[in-house]
């Protein structure tokens, strides 16, 4: 059954549409992105305090990649276990600001440093540009760990939705390249299979925030026509081998089109012997992890994800 708070938020969204506010998928991508950015700025007036916030930029495949570092309260001295976080938004919307509060909470609750990555977005930079940025950011932080105050042996990657997919891809890419990879992965309702429609993509296609129309809007901007949908950078669930991947925390939502492929990814990890914590929040919707002003289940999920990662790193 849908949680009361999720039902209330969906009713508010429906009322706004009926009163004339256009649906995101009816807008040009640049206009829609600006609208989401403005909504996110207004959504939380008092973000959690952290010990320090440092903005910067690192070299990327096609110019600098902006980032934001969050150092947790109550942790001093030495290098820190670090979560490299990739925001969600279908590779079209979202940025450091939209996920600022989420990253602050994850840092404080896990007692780990968080580095949020502002990768390039589509349609200006279609696939595989965002993925290329995500991989480059991981490599740079790994190789220059001291400059980031990070412990190179305790690097995690994580993200929500598109960002969760990127984190999964980074882990597979580092393993396949036989490079030092992440020690942990935090996958929040990740998109893991673009090659087919799962049962949840069909059953949750309308009425639960992330609709089929919205997913198609993201897809049209992100993936050029004729792209092989079995490419593991689009469909990491299709990888033949899941051994050698890092321990994972995988979270899904019950009324989310991406629910089944997130669960399937967790199952593949478990079957391969990868230590995996899988959690489903049955009564809520896609996006709840960051929509914490409206969906208090998101606060619980933030705490749970951070606790699992913090325990893994011994913080």
TrEMBL record:
Coiled coil: none annotated. One of its GO terms (molecular function) is hydrolase activity. The keyword Hydrolase applies. It comes from the Bacteria. Residues 83-289 form the Alpha/beta hydrolase fold-3 domain. The keyword Hydrolase applies. InterPro entries: AB_hydrolase_3, GDXG_lipolytic_enzyme. It holds the Pfam family Abhydrolase_3. Keywords: Hydrolase. This is Alpha/beta hydrolase.
């Amino acid at each position: 059954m849908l949680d009361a708070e999720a039902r209330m938020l969906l009713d508010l969204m429906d009322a706004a549409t009926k009163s004339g506010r256009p649906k995101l998928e009816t807008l040009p991508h640049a206009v829609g992105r600006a609208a989401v950015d403005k909504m996110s700025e207004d959504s939380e007036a008092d973000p959690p305090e952290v010990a320090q916030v440092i903005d910067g930029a690192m070299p990327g495949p096609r110019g600098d990649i902006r980032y934001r570092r969050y150092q947790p309260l109550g942790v001093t001295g030495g290098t820190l276990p670090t979560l490299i976080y990739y925001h969600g938004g279908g590779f079209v919307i979202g940025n450091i600001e939209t996920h600022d509060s989420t990253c602050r909470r994850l840092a404080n609750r896990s007692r780990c440093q968080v580095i949020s990555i502002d990768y390039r977005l589509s349609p200006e930079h279609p696939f595989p540009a965002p993925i290329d940025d995500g991989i480059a950011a991981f490599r740079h932080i790994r190789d220059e760990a001291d400059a980031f105050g990070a412990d190179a042996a305790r690097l995690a990657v994580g993200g929500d939705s598109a960002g969760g997919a990127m984190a999964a891809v980074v882990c597979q890419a580092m393993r396949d390249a036989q490079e030092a990879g992440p020690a942990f992965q935090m996958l929040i309702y990740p998109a893991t299979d673009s090659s087919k429609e799962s049962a949840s993509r069909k059953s949750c296609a309308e009425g639960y925030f992330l609709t089929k129309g919205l997913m198609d809007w993201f897809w049209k901007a992100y993936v050029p026509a004729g792209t092989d949908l079995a490419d593991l950078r689009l469909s990491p669930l299709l990888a033949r081998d899941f051994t050698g991947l890092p321990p994972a925390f995988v979270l899904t939502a019950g009324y989310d089109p991406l629910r089944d492929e997130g669960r399937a990814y967790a199952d593949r990890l478990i079957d391969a012997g990868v230590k995996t914590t899988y959690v489903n929040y049955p009564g809520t919707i896609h996006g709840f992890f960051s929509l914490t002003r409206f969906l208090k289940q998101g606060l619980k999920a933030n705490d749970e994800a951070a606790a699992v990662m913090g325990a893994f790193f011994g913080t």
